[in-house]
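In the present case, backbone shapes were mapped to integers, as reproduced here:
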Amino acid sequence: MADSHESTVLPSGQADAILSPVPERPNTHNSSDDPQASESARFSAWRVPYLTTEVPLGHTNIDGILRFVDAFVSEYLPSLPENQRGDSIEEFAYNLPTDLTIEDQATVGLPRAIELLSSDEDDPMPMEGLDDDAARRAGNFPWFAPSTIITRDPPSSIVPFYDPDIEGAAALNEIRIWVRELFSLSSLFFDIQAQMSSMVRDMGASDDPLRLNAQRLLNEAVDDLLQVSLPSLFELSLDNVQPRAESLADAERHIVTAKEKLFLAEAYLVSQEALLLANGDEFKAHASRYERTRYRDHLRWLVSNFQTARLRGIFVCSSGMGLEPVTRSYDTSEDSCPVCREDLPEEGEIAHPPAVSFACCNKGFHVDCLLEWLFEHFSEDMDCPMCRKELDLDFLGALMEQKVQELQCL
């Protein structure tokens, strides 16, 4: 699975291969003395109805629903603050990307999940005594990860699995590579869909038609990804190359359709970022752009290393702008970054990563070094590593935007 300038043409999967076992319905009668056991029971009890397929689910892909629900309950839901879980389950229940009717949802236990996990603590936690910056950190957006964007190394070269002296080795190796690359795309798009969904839920009004349309597109994208069926790499032979190729072509079409829907939905985030900037909420806008850059950069790296030229062409992430020369506005007597102690760029040099300066002490830092320092202190008071001047979220947002401009993924 796009900004101050608009999203361009472009248009990492926990729900990929094998379902973790669905637990037996727990005995909750004696769990009141154990809060953790009680909490575990609340999370797991509603999954048991999915073990039956005797409900009128029509052509619904039961395995796909199981995988989707399992990932939602075991991974996404526990990551949310307690007071947000009820709303998330309700939205999940009524936006399942399948042909489930409301009656079907009742049969498989989703309303019961809403009852179990919705609490009386839906109001935000009080933030009295916190300054504006601390309050914004305390109310941090669930989709924002205060961490640097990973710089990924090129993958090691892939040795053909089938030796050239084996009959049909070229065709078999091509199919094998195709499977691996489609699997990587499908897994990443599951991750991107989950990230986008979290971001869309946190933007705009819940009844905004544009937001509802974005949510619909994201749900449809998951439905497309759930239709992807990839053969086992251990079942390839010359006898089944043609059927496997036809199956993979069908899987590729589903992934392409999912990609298109994901990045149509992303246009809503772009519009919300513009509104946030216009309304003075610069940090949230920059945080959104930073997170979109994170998953787009991952996609660009993944696709750039594909061996299948057709897939590189379909999923390419292009940018029309290059790096600007760095202006050394900091103290030129200092030639190394105070954090990593490595050299800073010379004047006019195109640096990677570029340098940034502080007005407080006029010291130069690598952008990644300074971002890492600030992210490490994100939940506390952020300050300059040199002079200890306190820095606010707007400064962090501007620094993240500099990284966004450097990577040029949007």
About this structure: Residues 1-62, 111-130, 320-332 have pLDDT under 50 and may be disordered. The radius of gyration is 24 Å.
